[in-house]
Structure formats: C-alpha cells, structure tokens
Amino acid sequence: LLPTFSPTDFPTSTRYMKGFDKMIFPVSGNNIYDRSSAQGQAFLWIIDNDKLKMEVTDSRLVQRYILALLYFSTVEIGKVDKWCYCGYNSTEDEYYNCYKIDSCANAVVPFLDEADECEWHGVTCVKNKVSEIDLRQSKLYGTMPHELSQLQSLRVLNLADNIIRGTIPKSLGKMQHLGDLALHYNFLTGTIPDDIYGLSSLQALDLGYNALSGTISRLIGDLTYVKALRLYQNFFTGPLPVELGNLKNLNFLWFHENDFTGTIPSGIWNNPKLKEFWGGFNLQTGSIPTSVNKMVDLTMLRLDDDSFSGSIPEELWDLTKLSWLYLNENNFSGTISTKIGQMKKLKRLSLKNNKLTGTIPSEMGKLVDLEMAWLYWNDLSGNVTKEVCALSKLENENNKLDIHTDCSEGSNNEPKVVCDCCTACCKDTYGAKECHKVFWK
Predict the structure, then answer these.
(1) What confidence score (pLDDT) does residue 316 get?
(2) Cβ neighbours of residue 90 under 8 Å, at least 6 residues apart?
(3) 3-state class of 397 per DSSP?
(4) pLDDT tens for residues 206-245?
(5) What DSSP character marks residue 153?
(6) Are 342 and 322 in contact (CB under 8 A)?
(7) What is the distance, to the nearest Å, from the Cα of residue 379 to the centroid of all Cα atoms in its chain?
(8) Residue 268 and residue 170: Cα distance in Å, rounded?
C-alpha cells in the first residue's frame, strides 16, 4: 500500500490525482515525494512540467520518468543550463568540446524536450523501448540512479568522461541485455559489485580512470562473452583471479596502473584472441611463459614498470602482428633475440632499464616501421649496426627513428654502446642515471 502524505507536501493538480504516483512509486519508492531529491524533481516534472502531458496509462511513462531522473541526478546544482546534451556531431564524426559550450542549442532534441524521449540526444530506442544511452563527454555531474536498471531493453550504457561520483549501483546487474557498460573517466569509488559479474550478455566493460578499489572477484570468470575488459588507473589490489583465463573471447585487457600483486594467470597467456594486453605499473612479479606465442593476434603487449624477471622467451619474437612492445622498468635478463627481425609490424619497442646483455641485433634493421627503440640502462654492448642506423634515414611518417642506447661515456670514459645514429645517449654510473639528446649533422 502507498503511504498517505499531507496534501501540502505534494502537487494537487488534476494530473497528480490521476494516480501517477502509483505508477512511479514501485520504481523509486518514497523518494518521489521528496522535492529536494532527483526522484522528486523528475516526478514533479512528469506531472506538471512535461509538455508532452503523457497519460498515466501510457506504457512509456516509467521509461520517460527514468530518463528524466538521469537528467536530474546528473545536473550540477545551480548550473542546470550547463548540462551538455549537444554531444555527438554526426556530420563531422567527432565530439564537441562540451567544456567550451555554454548552452545546448546545438542539440537536435535536448533532454526534457516535449518530443518523444526516444528522440532525445544520446537515446536510441528499438520498438519504443530504450536500447542505448550514450552521453559520454556531456558534463554530467552527480550520481547514477539505481533506477536505470529498470530499462530492461538497454544494451548500451555509455556515461564515460563525465563527473559522475559515488558507487556503481549493484542494481545494474539486473540488466540481462546489457552488452556494453562504459563508465571510464569519471570519479567513481567503492568496489565492483558482484552483481555486475552476473551480466550474462556483457561484451565490453570499461571502468578505467576512476577511484575504484578492492579486489577483483573470481566471479569475473562468468563474463564469458566479454571481449573488452578495461580496469586501468584505479586502486584495485590483490592478485588477478585465475578465472580471468576463462574469458576465451577477450580481445582487449587493460589493467595497468593499479596495485595488483602476484603473477599473471597462465590462462591469459594462452588466449589466441587477445589483441591488446596492457598491464604494468602494478606490483606484479613472475616471468613471460613460452606459451606467449599462442597469442597470435596480439598487437600490443605492455608490462612496463613492474617486477617481472627472467629472460625474454624466444617464443615472444614469433608474435609477428605485434606493433607495441613495452617491457621497460623490470628485471628482465638475457639477450635480445635475432628473431626480432621477423616482427615486421613493430613500431614501438621499449626495453629500457632492465638487465639485458649482449649486442643489439642487426636484424632490427628489417623493422622498417620502427619509430622508437629505447634500449638504454641495460648492459648491452657493441655497435649499433649500419642496418639499424639505416632505419633513421627512411622517410616514414615520423621521419626519423627515435633510438636511445647507453652510448654516453661511462665511468671508464667509454660508452657501453657505440652508436652513430642514436637520438639520445644515456648512462648509468653507480646508480646515477641520465640521458642527453644527440644532434647529428
């Protein structure tokens, strides 16, 4: 039963008396009677200010209320006119810089317009039911209302790059059709609710660049359809669960810049569908297994600034689709294989600040797309060969290969590496590390 309230607290209009509260109360509860709450404001708008004057019997009433609630939940107090619903410019295929826009006059149909809510900017419907909300870069300021979970036909929820605070509503785990959840570049706190791991249709989960914390649940292994998982730049701790290896459809895995510990689960190294593997800047240890060559579609491997050790396995150099390889700031030892010459698509190579020995293979000269090779602060020796130096003379997009080696004079007044084409020469003398630019005539 609905509670009774003093008539002075709520609207007494004819529309209110038609029983709108009976339709909205099951969605938001008593909050709709609080004029200061986002729920109360959305409720009053539906009743008194919505020019569409939707009838209480309309099947889209709750849907329109929830979208209005999203608006009132994410408007900065005192700056109602700053909520940026202009967003996407389809003619230029780019996003407006909403932070330079003072009004939303560019919106075709802004939020709270009298038009059908399916025509509001960022809202897509299928058969009159909301299937997509894309309000990235729209200056949303506030929290996510838990009522979004009642949009049961929603397949895409993209609220990225806004100023959304608070926690991730656990009620989102009820959205069994949700395939893409993008909440990156916000100010979210708390942990990932276990309910999120029950989203059986989820294919992309991006929670990067927030202030989320806690550990990653073993339940993450239930997201068997996920292709993109991005957890980067948060405050997650603990080891990566072995169940991550169960995600056989995973194409993109980004978990850098957290406080993860332990080793990388072996199942991840065996995933032939993985294209981008971005770790690093954590507290992880271990080595790269020989099974790395099973990642045949890998284009990016980043494990920089961690505590990985051991030699770089020969099998890694079999990854011929690799474009970015960052293994710098670790404890890798051994040599750079001559097989590096078969990585014809390699553009960026960073092996700096490890314990590598031997010489720089002349086979690197076969990497005609190479733009950057940072090999300094190691124990490499010998000459950078003419084959490698020839790369700096190729007229590619970046004009000149950016190559850094230990070619500065060390404690014995001799460089470790002799290089006639390096763009920077570095040295590590008793722990004092430095580099300086080189300008060749």
Answers:
(1) 98
(2) none
(3) coil
(4) 999 999 999 999 999 999 999 999 999 999 999 999 999 9
(5) T
(6) no
(7) 36
(8) 27
